[in-house]
Amino acid sequence: MPRVYMDANATTPLLPEVMEAMRPYWMEHFGNASSIHLDGQRAHAAVAQARETMAEFFHCHPAEVVFNSGGTEGDNTAIFGMLRPGDHFITTSIEHSAILQAAKRVAQLGVETTLVAPRPSGLIDPGEIVRAIRPETRLISMMLANNETGVLEPVQEIGKIAADAGIFFDIDAVQGAGKVEFDVRRFGCHLCSISAHKMHGPKGVGAMFVRRGTPIEPLLVGGSHERRRRAGTENVPGIVGLARAAELAMHSLEDGTIRRVAALRDRLEEGILALPGTGVNGAWEGDKPVPRVANTTNIWFDQLEGEALVIAMDLKGVSVSGGSACHSGATEPSHVLLAMGLNKSRARASLRFSLLKTATEADVDRVLEVVPEAVGRLRELSPVAAGTLG
Amino acid sequence: MGHGVGTRSSGQRPSIGDAVTERKTIAVAMSGGVDSSTVAAMLAHDPSGGGTDASGADRSVVGLTLQLWDQTRLAGKHGIPDAPKAGRCCSLDDVYDARRVAEQLGIPYYVVNQEERFEQDVVRPFVDEYLAGRTPIPCSLCNNHLKFDQLHKTARSIGASHIATGHYAVNEYDAERGRWILKRPVDKAKDQTYFLFGLTQEQLARTLFPLGYMTKPEVREVARQHGLALAEKPDSQEICFIPGGDYKQFLTAYLEEQGEQAPETAGELVASSGEVLGRHEAISNFTVGQRKGLGVSSASPLYVLAIDPASHRVTVGADAELATRTLRARRLNWIAIPELIAPMRVKIKIRHRHEPAWATLEPGGAGEVVATFDEPQRAVTPGQSAVFYDGDEVVGGGWIV
Predict the structure, then answer these.
(1) Cβ-Cβ contacts under 8 Å for A342 (sequence gap 6 or more)
(2) Could you report the predicted ipTM of this complex, rounded to two decimals?
(3) Closest Cα of chain A to B146: distance in Å?
(4) Which residue of A has its CA nearest to B117?
């Protein structure tokens, strides 16, 4: 039985086209993009072309694209590159740890951070952001789409708020990129980070939009690469792969792929929700559906341990995730779900299903076979179940 | 190969798990040490290691590590050493080692977070017992609650019918008595039955101890044969959540973290005659049999004889006075017998390093037993467990009161 991979928000496989695009740049065109000779020029041309593609992706000028190692570097660069002692920083409690841990680090330097909590739906209330603003607020950072729930945050509104207040605005778009219409001008941000491997590109490479004139210090210093905004020899094959993946992602938004993924996700969700004692985290606000990326659903299961369910499904050939891995690799309840107001046991009993854009009907069928069986067995054995399902 | 995993000396009993899973799946509890790693290697790769039954070829092995305690949690507080590198369960290096072994063997491997349950069922009772003047033994609690009860639950919930561990003990089904019997291992120096007396029949039926018929040097040799890099890794000894082994530092740091005050338990230090010799600051500073740090001087060495949690009085006396002839135990678990209904001759082990001593065991009413030793025993310590042996068999055990 082939395995079914439903953990696309963790990472995705390369698409064959991406692999092909990268192939010549490992051995044949191996030059250093900074070198004067023809080998270097060929590498430079590849990077420049990729930069133009990424400019199209971001909807920005090519000079505003900085290649880096991925989402964590982009998030860190925004915070370390922009905040100085005495500055105030606004972000949310559902951000990726690359933001939250960096905020902790600058706190030691005298940068105060306000963490805005989401509503129970997972949506950040723009009004809360407004209320958090102070005269010394220098930067607001927020994610485009949440990695755990897929909830799409109102970045455009935050962009307007930031512009009105004269505050810089950074978007962690790692989970949104390739899944929704993307336009940094419309978002109104100064900085925006994406990662290649979340959209069928290679790992260890990403890009950051840095709006022209944004005063940001580089995280890495050394050579004059990337207009002195990011030192280090360009990862030429990686950058080429990123650009090819971005092209394919733009195409997927237009050719109906994303709509197809959304339909699969909805069928999966419906199938699982047919089980008693289940529900979706971050799908509804009152009777209004919450905007979500097409590929993600986060589902709670009453009376079981999410960790055991993940393992049971893995042994049946289905990859999903629950919570976040702690230092040892054990699972801890997701800080995102806790911030949304779930109690620890419900957060622990929540699983994230995130579909690849190559997902099939058969994948969904298989998962809908495995989940009820595993859930049934777990509930039979769960100490949580004693007395309730008895 | 005479005795392998799954060998049952006196017959086989159909296992309940077979009905649950189409394929027999064994979950190996992996700590990152040489013993459990070798068990995983034997079950995963050595057909004779587990395959006395026909299902051997159709068996799958899954590695599990219980994440019980965050070793960085109290590190650096009140003199507790910084997070240990290895040799203690749940240290990062040990989890890494376990994961590497599983990867090398090509078996699935998972770390299961049981920190909350460990704190609730092991750490908290440990702290409370100490504060109450008893000397608790967390490893037995951990075995009962986490390593077996929880591990079996986790194993079954992921579709595994059995667990296997690296304990040195023998576990066999005796058809005549209709019971699972726990026995001392071949390597008496590594005998861990003292910590396993709490296992129920149901737990024993689903547990494999593949090392029971092996000596430690043999285990290391098997580890080498399987190319396990940790074949030479030293054994761990200390209580896993108390780095450095200083339980007083731990109590202080833990209570402070919980925002609790240690209860006021200062009191008198008295001789067995009743004569007051001085005062002490807290009963949790004492253990029956302790000699150092009593805070009184005497011509001949003094030992703690008794701790009274009610009056906070600590009684001290000469070594000879430590010896007692009887003990009472409660919270009993019987393994070789359904229950004790008549006096029985047994050997009793009253602490991990104690040489079992002959005694007569009698029902004591109200879920207790009373044991009368043939020879007085030194330092019978409330809070420790008493395990009863009939030859190599574990008859049962309980907690000393």
Answers:
(1) A281, A300, A333, A350
(2) 0.84
(3) 13
(4) A383
